[in-house]
Amino acid sequence: MRELTRSTLLTLLAASLLVSVDGCKIKLNDGNEIPNFAFGTFRLKTPTQSIIRAIEAGYRLIDTAAFYANEEEIGKGIRDVIERGIVTRDELFISGKLPNTNHSKEEVIPALKLSLRKLGLEYLDMYLIHSPMATTGEGENICLDYVETWREMETAQKLGLARSIGVSNFNSKQINRILTLCDVPPAVNQIEVNPTYPNLALVAYCKVNNIAVMAYSPFGYMVPRRIDLEDFSPPRFDDPYLVKLANKYGKKTSQIAMRYLVDRYLIPIPRSDNPTHIQENIDVYDFKLTTKEISTINTYDINTKVYEFGFLKNNVFYSFYQS
Fold first, then answer.
1. Distance CA 236, CA 215 (A)
2. pLDDT digits (tens, 9 = 90+) for 277-313
3. Beta carbons within 10 angstroms of residue 225's beta carbon
């Protein structure tokens, strides 16, 4: 029998442990359903128009955050498509995030209500702690235990302000503390996952604990970002193997990268202002990668994140020292 690599084992484990995937939705551990493809809103140049284009293209999960400083513009786009009858509010899944500056118990609910006002919504489908690392408004690290923050997130869910609650940028040790000390498990962990950073161990851990994974920065270093990584030769969009797969399936290599995440039962979060790219990114539901193809793409791992949040490395709860 052929010996399975660690990469293949972790991929198979993660895929087999997801409780329910129904069509284009994933059933969360709280019983709610989330679309398995998201539109990201970080650093959009034209937030309102891009949201409108994304929803018209078929996106139903919109990932937002107070930190992105564009909630009002996103809210305008959401109102536009609802008023024109493109979608109903119930057909959308809007996710938001608690800023690092509002981790104290007294600030969680007010921060959530402020996001709701800016977005023009009565509730969020999902509210995440953006990271376990609390800071002041001036960016200074402070020691606020995210477990206490999580307990107030549970209150937000009980109040109906957020139908599901989760975390972002948490490692396994930090999630373990929540599972041990709190009443409600996170429904989602939003983390960086892409061909150049497959994050196999943390993804597998989340799946073992029935926690869905949203994958930000889905292209990783396929997009040229740092000159100092040239020696690692991370695969680009013209990588021969990705081109081979693109030709096989009649797709672009960017779509192969998206389908790689979908076939690992993750929720990709691409973002773009380009109408063509917005459509292409989600046009990945007419083919499926094989397990061998997924495992081969896993080997592109250069073990380097795009977002390491280096300015928070001195925070007592800095989460990127381990998976």
1. 19
2. 999 999 999 999 999 999 999 999 999 999 988 888 9
3. 15
Instruction: Answer yes or no: are the C-beta atoms of 102 and 108 closer than 8 Å.
Output: yes
User: Is pLDDT larger for residue 14 or for residue 85?
Assistant: 85
Q: What token pair was written down for 84? A: 């024109």
Residues 6 or more apart whose Cβ sits within 8 Å of residue 211: 29, 166, 175, 185, 186, 187, 188, 189
> How many helices (H) does the chain have, and how many strands (E)?
11, 11
Closest CA to 166 of 196, 137, 190: 190
Chain segment 231-283, per-residue pLDDT in tens: 556 789 999 999 999 999 999 999 999 999 999 999 999 999 999 999 999 99
| DSSP code of residue 172 | H
Q: What average pLDDT score do residues 129-155 get?
A: 96
Question: Which residues are CB-contacts of 163 (< 8 A; sequence separation ≥ 6)?
Answer: 32, 123, 124, 125, 126, 157
Which residues lie closer than 8 Å to 314 by C-beta, 6 or more apart?
141
68 is catalytic: yes
Between strands 61-63 and 267-268, the pairing is unpaired
What is the rounded distance in angstroms from the CA atom of residue 239 to the CA atom of residue 219? 13
Beta-ladder partners of 93: 61
Q: Are 108 and 152 in contact (CB under 8 A)?
A: yes
306 DSSP 8-state letter:
S
Distance CA 11, CA 23 (A): 20
State residue 229 phi and psi, 5-degree precision. Answer: -100, 5
Give me the catalytic one of 68, 127, 205, 260. 68
- 98 vs 171: CA distance, rounded Å: 17
